[in-house]
Design brief:
This protein is an alpha+beta fold and 375 residues long. It has five helices and seven strands. The strands form two sheets. Strands 6-5-4-1-7 form a five-stranded antiparallel sheet, with no helix packed on it. Pfam families: FCH, SH3_2.
Length: 375
Amino acid sequence: MSDFNHFKDAFWSGDFTSTSGYDTLLQKVNDGRKTSKDLEDLVKQRAVLEERYGKDLMQLARKTGGQNEINTLRRAFDTMKQQLENVGNAHVQLAGALREEAKRVEDMRDRQKEQRRRVEISMERLHKQKNHLYKKTMDSKKCYEQKCQEADEVEITADNRMATGNVKQQEKLKAKVLQTRESSVDADKTYKQNVEALNSLRQEWQKEHQQSCQYFDKLECERITFLRRTMWIHSNLLSQQCVKDDEMYEVVRESLEQCDVKADIKYFIQLKQTGSEPPAPVLYENYYHRNDHGGQKIARDRTCKSESTDYEFVPHNFNKKQVRVKYSFSDETSNSLCLEENEIVSVLDAHRNDGWCLVEQNNKTGLVPLSYLDL
């Protein structure tokens, strides 16, 4: 494998009319231009993404609430929103820097396009001239060879007829030989002139081809160096942005370190406390015991009198109905009959018209409100 370091040493062809070396270099330069455009588009698209991301972060930070929070957590939350907006703004600025790099690539690509175009125009002109003159030279060579063959044939024919022909025929043969020989000489002269012109043009083309190779070599070196530098800067910009992002998030972390759970709880208590004593319990109030005055007291005085003459002659064989006590009941005027919820009593008289019922429990009798019994 050849060890060449420059285009001018490796892109020639043995075929005089071939342009394969030049075409290969031109294809390489065009491919390089396409690569430059691809990198330019990549950087531009990355700038679009960074700008969109940055603006979305800024919008998110601005519309996020958190105003209902208080004290240290509120400060941490506000810090987080502020730094989020700062991160978004930094990414928008990064998008601007990326667009500047993309513009530099575009300028380089356009500049090289113009430079390359001048070389192409010059080489296309020389290729056309070289091919045309080469064809002309080859045609003159063919004509020269034909004229020489004709002259040789005429001379041979004349030599054969000189001995047998008359003077007039001999003169005619000599004139024809002279004419064909002069034609061959003219063809030879034209052929030599074309060869000299072709060699002169070849030298010019060879020099131009070498210069074109060197120029393409230079353009490629510049392009590769420039794109390498652009990708390096691109990576550095993104890396620096990561560092900036982390610095901003570090501010958030430092704010969170100052967030004190106990302090926030205490602050809220001091700010919004409503009292230190719970409400008193709700106590049960018996409807018939809420008022000790008036007719209600008279009604209670009628209950729980086991020695009352009204009931002391109730026969023992009376058909008694067993019922359950729904609510606890006691008579403050007498301790003779006190009932608890769910106890069982015997009904002696449930057909009174005053809302009371005569019951018996443990050989004690008394009046109980009908509503207190599960009749």
